[in-house]
């Protein structure tokens, strides 16, 4: 499992460096721009990384070659979910760093907002890979891109709406008001969805002919 994780890490460093740069840029912009889209876009980028890694695996025929190594189908699936979670953690840290810097510049540190972001951003970031990966594992990266694009467009639309709301209302107050009821619901749903997605992907990939 460690070998699979290292393989994907090296591939991500080689092929997905642009995503890291874009995520850093958006996090920097979020320091001066109080919009949900600027905060959430790095989270969305993190969900794209495992999909791209699966695409590179298919192009390099790794899916076929992996059969000669002592790795189970479950491990091949699980490592992509681990990469998704690692990328998500990095994106959340960037988003939090941007907002903490914003608070420091404005001399208005808000513990409630930070706690809300800590709870909400990972929960929202889990949704995209949870919905995409089963379809990608079943249909492949190319055919599964239809689902991928639909989900990405849907998330962009949601973030755009939240960004528009954030311009009219104070984003901090909006996040804090959500903390008491919506965040626990989203977090619970996201965790359950991630577990169900992982199990479904394993089941699908075990039956897939490579």
Automatic annotation (TrEMBL):
The organism's taxonomic lineage, starting at the top: Bacteria, Bacillati, Bacillota, Clostridia, Eubacteriales
Key words of the record: Membrane, Transmembrane, Transmembrane helix
Keyword Repeat: no
The protein's name in its UniProt record: ABC-2 transporter permease
Pfam families (alphabetical): ABC2_membrane_5
Domain of life: Bacteria
Keyword Membrane on entry: yes
InterPro entries to which the protein is assigned, alphabetical: ABC2_memb-like
Segments crossing the lipid bilayer: 12-32, 38-56, 77-101, 113-134, 146-166, 178-200
């Amino acid at each position: 499992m460690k070998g699979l994780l290292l393989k994907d890490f090296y591939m991500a460093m080689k092929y997905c460096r642009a995503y890291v740069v874009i995520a850093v840029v958006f996090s920097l912009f979020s320091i001066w721009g109080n919009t949900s889209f600027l905060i959430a876009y790095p989270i969305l980028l993190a969900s794209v990384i495992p999909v791209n890694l699966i695409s590179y695996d298919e192009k390099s025929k790794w899916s076929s070659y992996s059969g000669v190594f002592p790795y189970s189908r479950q491990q091949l699936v699980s490592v992509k979910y681990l990469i998704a979670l690692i990328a998500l953690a990095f994106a959340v840290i960037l988003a939090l760093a941007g907002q903490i810097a914003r608070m420091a510049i404005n001399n208005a540190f808000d513990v409630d907002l930070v706690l809300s972001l800590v709870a909400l951003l990972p929960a929202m970031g889990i949704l995209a890979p949870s919905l995409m990966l089963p379809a990608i594992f079943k249909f492949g990266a190319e055919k599964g891109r239809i689902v991928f694009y639909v989900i990405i467009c849907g998330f962009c639309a949601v973030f755009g709406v939240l960004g528009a709301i954030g311009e009219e209302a104070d984003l901090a107050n909006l996040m804090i008001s959500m903390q008491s009821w919506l965040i626990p619901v989203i977090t619970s749903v996201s965790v359950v969805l991630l577990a169900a997605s992982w199990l479904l992907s394993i089941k699908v990939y075990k039956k897939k002919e490579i």
